């Protein structure tokens, strides 16, 4: 299993203000679903930040997202080790397959793969 990218998720109701603030650092909006917006660096597209009010289909907003090349394998590994699954593996309408797991420090990690 390989990691493709890691994105910090900022929970905030100030999406417009965040877009403007991070724009000062060179980030541009690359995705906006209304409840989550992702900003990326044009010169290094994998450098990203997401801002979300709440997660649309999960009980909590994740602290970070980790995109992997095989989300099913990642899910199997986490379950086998007894990690706390916060949100079950499922396909989302916006084209990702994902689950949430709690890390040892209590952070919620959104582990995903694009379909």
From TrEMBL:
Gene3D superfamilies: 2,3-Dihydroxybiphenyl 1,2-Dioxygenase, domain 1 (3.10.180.10). PROSITE patterns: VOC. InterPro entries: Glyas_Bleomycin-R_OHBP_Dase, Glyas_Fos-R_dOase_dom, VOC_core. It holds the Pfam family Glyoxalase. Keywords: Dioxygenase, Oxidoreductase. GO terms for molecular function: dioxygenase activity. Transmembrane segments: none annotated. Residues 2-114 form the VOC domain. This is Glyoxalase/Bleomycin resistance protein/Dioxygenase superfamily protein. The lineage of its organism: Bacteria, Bacillati, Actinomycetota, Actinomycetes, Kitasatosporales.
């Amino acid at each position: 299993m390989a990691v493709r990218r890691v994105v910090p998720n900022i929970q905030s109701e100030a999406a417009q203000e965040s877009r403007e603030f991070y724009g000062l650092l060179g980030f541009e909006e690359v995705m906006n679903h209304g409840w989550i917006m992702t900003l990326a660096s044009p010169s290094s597209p994998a450098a990203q930040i997401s801002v979300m009010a709440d997660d649309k289909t999960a009980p909590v907003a994740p602290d970070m997202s980790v995109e992997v090349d095989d989300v099913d394998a990642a899910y199997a590994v986490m379950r086998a080790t007894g990690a706390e699954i916060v949100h079950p593996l499922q396909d989302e309408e916006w084209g990702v397959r994902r689950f949430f797991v709690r890390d040892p420090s209590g952070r919620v990690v959104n582990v995903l793969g694009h379909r």
